[in-house]
Amino acid sequence: MGRPFGIPVYVSWTWFIIAGFITISFKEVFRLPGMSEAESYAVAFAFAVLLYLSVLLHELAHSVLAKWYGLPVRRITLYLLGGVSEIEKEPPTPGKEFMVAAAGPALSLGLAAVGLGADVLLLNTGGIVELLVWQLWVSNLIVGVFNLLPGLPLDGGRMLRAGIWKLTSSPGRATIAAAWTGRGLAVFLIVLPFALSMMSGQEVDNLRLLWSVVLATFIWMGASQSLNVARIRARIPQVVARALARRSVPVTAETPLSEALRRAQEQHAGAIVVVDHEGRPIAIVNEAAVEATPEHRRPWVDVGSLAKTLEPSMVLAADLSGEPLIDAMREAPAAEYLLVERGGEIYGVLATADVNRVFSKV
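Predicted structure:
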């Protein structure tokens, strides 16, 4: 829909569902005396658009501050339950994490304050503008307060995570604690309508129960995703290029595949590197292509026809590990990478499949 501050903004098709729901639900709220039904629908739809414009500003507050801190922002997406800012890296310190998380609710509460001031000025004017301003400042107040609830994936959960991170110096433990708080919050939202019903002596309001279930499901799923991310991040230190590398055997491009495999078996190598006649690596034989070649054809197939030419981005330092290694692989996706020592000597081949196995049981 545009690129404010250089950040692409997308609108999910699910937004039209909530826009329709808001339009139908608020049609009567905005229906003033003498207004036709079509006009009341139009005003209610305008409220839905303005409300999600407020959500966009909320997400922009997160994203702009993240960019200011040097964190890459992929995009902002508006969808059924609000919006999400896709910030590709975590803030490096708990203080920056807290500030990025707090920026959204702060802006929503600021919009609520401005709207309240405007509402006071428009008090008793009785027009559509007064109705819209009142609904919008109340909605922004609800959005701001709701997002401050202390549980992931809400902004308040990220603020709680930042606080625990500061106290424990462990972002992983902080994520787990804030995610479990989020799960507890989800359970509370399910119980709340029944508790209110018992206290008032009235039956459970079905619409309130529906919204509680929807919001609780959203929070539970987000908290569970955060727990999964924490488990993945805990395994990142195990991604060590030297430890995961396969020993390689060098062969020339015209070598038959069967002969190359025989040499690899003799030398207990798990990869085949194609070299030129001066011994310089020029390609890596693709493991999937080898497995797809029938055994009876292997004596007649040259390894060069099954190899992928080495691009500069496919040559990695053998001493890479952790996030730097994963970042290097993410920048240039490939099935295999050549690992070299600082002097340029071949150390081995790193297969993406071997890296994926580190995370396969998370």
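Summary: The first strand starts at residue 9 and ends at 11.
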